[in-house]
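FYI - complex with cytidine-5'-monophosphate, inputs then prediction.
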Amino acid sequence: TSVAAVIPAAGRGVRLGPGAPKALRALNGTPMLIHAVRALAASRRVSLVIVVAPPDGAAEVKSLLDAHALPERTDFLVVPGGESRQESVRLGLEALPPQYGIVLVHDAARPLVPVDTVDAVIEAVRDGAPAVVPALPLADTVKEVAPAAEAGAPEPVVATPERSRLRAVQTPQGFDRATLVRAHESVTDNVTDDASMVEQLGLPVVAVPGHEEAFKVTRPLDLVLAEAVLARRRL
Ligand code: C5P
């Protein structure tokens, strides 16, 4: 069965500071989205990439893709996105032609994911998992807090989940297409990743090793880190 990737890239990226939509900001002179598209198209198994553009930016994204060298063996589609990441992914899925049985969902904000991670996710779906996430152990201890008594006051800590059992989850997340479509049809809560919607259906989700270079570019320091990773790759 063929593999397609949906790249939600419709976010504004407010945490990154003022400027263009996050996916269109440059890393070493090339828009983050182009890095992300190349990272997915680097897998020989991915034959279609659907980019979900900012609602008013589909034409701009289309010409951006046309202006950059991308692999000939890969097809590209651009569709306008929505208000939430979840809605943007759903709009991407609606544009998916019938022959694709495996779907990857990958954040444009993770431009540097290595191809080995992409292939490991695809492999696990082909081996029969309905949903696969790349995941890494945490460096920090994580605590659950309750709301502060008043704005600006310290937050009470209520729990410390055992760190060795926690994972930080990345993208691309890989899915059996029918499972992901059903998840998007039936789960209406606002979620931060696609696999959690499959969990809500009661279906198994498995984790494979993620990669430190698949980090999400969210805050200004992440741009510095991403450019350092690119510089190291060129050595
Ligand atoms: O905001 P966050 O970092 O979780 O966004 C993850 C990905 O979802 C980004 O690639 C962003 O462009 C995308 N997104 C989207 N549509 C939205 C919000 C976020 O495609 N409405």
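Residues 220-234 form the longest helix (15 residues). The radius of gyration is 18 Å.
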